[in-house]
Structures are given as C-alpha cells and as structure tokens.
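Protocol step 4 of 6: structure prediction from sequence.
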Amino acid sequence: MLRKRRPLDAALDANLQTAGLDPRDAGFARAIATETLRRLGQLQAVIHTFVPKLPPQHRAGPTLEILLAGACELLFLRVAAHAVVDAANEIAGADNKAVHFKPLINAVLRRVSREAEAVVAQQDAPRLNTPDWLWSRWSADYGDDDAHAIAAAHLVPPPLDIVRKSGAGTFPDGHELPGDVLRIAEAGRIEDLPGYAEGCWWVQDFAATLPARLLGDVRGQTVVDLCAAPGGKTAQLAVAGANVIAIERDPARMQRLEQNLKRLKLDAELVLADAREFAPPERVPFVLLDAPCSATGTIRRHPDLPWNKSAADISVCADGAVELLDAAANMLTGDGTLMFAVCSLEPEEGEEQVGNFLLRHPEFRVDPISANEVFGLTDLLRNGALRTLPCHMADKGGMDGFYAARLKRSAV
C-alpha cells in the first residue's frame, strides 16, 4: 500500500488469500496493517527518533515497513517484546535486502520497547497521523478545534453498525441507535454473527443510513438508486416499500449488490449501466445519488486513504460528480426529488457541488432537512443540509463523515 498506493483492503485480500493463514492469524495480520496505517505519522516520528536517517529503500528493501509494523505491535497492539523482535528478525531474514539490516531492526525495536512510551506520551497524535494536505483543508473548512476532533475520531477503531431488516429475526447483541440501527463494539467476523446467513440485517454505518431516509415516504414509488453497490441504500429503499431501480456500472460491484439482496431476500431491478448514460423508461419521482468521491469521511474505516490520496483526487471526483448530478436531474418528474450524498468531508465534493448544481439548474432548490428527520440530532445539520462528522456522537463511537442535500424540482 505504501509503495504502490494500492487500497489497503485490496492489498490485504490479495496477500492473505495466497498466504494460507488460518482465520485468527489472518485477522491479526489485518490488525497490524490497519493499526500501522492508523498511527503511521506517530510511528514514523518514533522511528525517526531512534534512527534519524534510514538507509534508502533500494538498499534496505522492506526494512522501514518491518520497523513500522513492529513498533505498532509494541506500542499500540501490546504484543510481547520478544515476540515482536523475533518475528521482525524472521521477516528480515527472508528478504535478500532486509537481511543485512537485522542488527538495526533488532536494536531499534528493543529501544522502542524500552523508551518509546515516553515519546508517544508527548505526541499530538491526531495532528501527526493526519497528512498536511488534509489537515490544512480541515482547519480551513471546519476550524482548528473541529479538525483536531475529526482527526482524533480517526484514531479509534470504528464499531460495526448493522441495519435490521425488520423488528423480527435474529440479531447480535449491541447498542440501539435510532432508525433500526444496532451498533456492535467488537463484532469479529461478520459472516459468523447471528442472523447474517438468514438475511436479517446488513452492514451500514449510521450516517450512511440517513440520506435514503430523507427521501421521506417512498412506499409504492419508483426510486432510481445511482451508483448503488454495495447495496445498503437499495436495501433501505426496498424495505421501505419502494420500487427500486439500482444502477451500477462495475460488474464485480453489481455482483456483490446482487448477492447482498439475495441474502436479504429483497427485490430491486438491477441495471448494469453507466449512470451518466442511463435513462429510466419514464421520469421518476425520486433519485438517490450517492456519488463516487474521495471518501475522506470513511478514514476511520480506511486508514490508508490519507496516505494514498491527494488533493488532486478530490478535484477529479468533484468533476465526475457534475455529470452524474446533471444526469440524475434529467431522470426526474417535474416536481421530483433528488437526494445527493457523498461520504466526503471536502466541500468541493459536497456543499460547493450543490451550489454549482443550483446555478446550472435554477429550476431546483434545496429542500431543507428538519431536526426531527435526523432524530433531533441538530449537530448533523448545516444550512439546510446534512453534514455529519466522524466526531459526532463520539460518546457512542462516532460516525462516518457525510454530506447530503435534498434538492427539489419546482413543478413545471
């Protein structure tokens, strides 16, 4: 991930499938990689304290990564020092470059085990673990205090939120959140949880459940769900009684959506198509567009994002959303409703996107969201739109960062 900028999930899946690890060891490997990236800035600072100048990668191979993972195990996963050092030496010994740096790895990790707790205690963890390009943006957009709170929320492994399909069924133990959402602190393997195989629930963060709810009563109405995979919002709309047309252009993601609906025993019309080119048989009263974006609102679930994306990615995503919004507007009836959502913290992908849309489409207006539509959680509302931050509901485990605006076309 660090060298090739591959998404962490893809890199883990590719490597763990070929490693032949049992589920427990595979889970531990995933935990090491995830927590190392969650604490990458701190760990880099710790290593630099003991080794001000590391040998270049072309000579040292994976020496730096071995040190980062080992320091993470010692400082944040609380693995016994002898086990960490032995494993690090074994990994280095298997690499034709890192093998020459075993004495360095051994010495640094032993110093980390003895001295680094004091170093970590003096660190500003939220700031160190947030790259400059993101920190400066969040400080400008939300203020220094909220930027720090957002970054602090990213350091806490997120709970698992599931949405119950109905009041009946088998469900894991968890904490009740509004809207049939159940929050589970330590879920383990999802497929092993009660009710999964029976299709009693699906995984969806609390914040991600709100945009579909904000469409209001859709029973018996046709709703086009654009960029629909993996299907959480499609499932919500189907449970609410809507006639859902789910659009997805990626065949693999469409297959996942189809499998999820099959497990949940829910129906929707699935269309493999580019949302920009799709036209429903007739105009519809509701369109939900959860647009592809930089996903900076999901960093607590994907700690690789700050390190494998840049400000340029935000501009690319924002440009792509313009076409999607214009296409969505053309699908609506004369008084139809377009719900636009992104799991991004960046105004270019949210607030500014909507502002520019309204300039292009003066026949639309923002239909303000009221507090009672978000269970009285007024902190989640800003200028008539939904704006959730990872630090919201921090005492209950936080939530993903989302922006959503309800756009209403005036009857013509």
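Step 5 (inspection) to follow. The radius of gyration is 23 Å.
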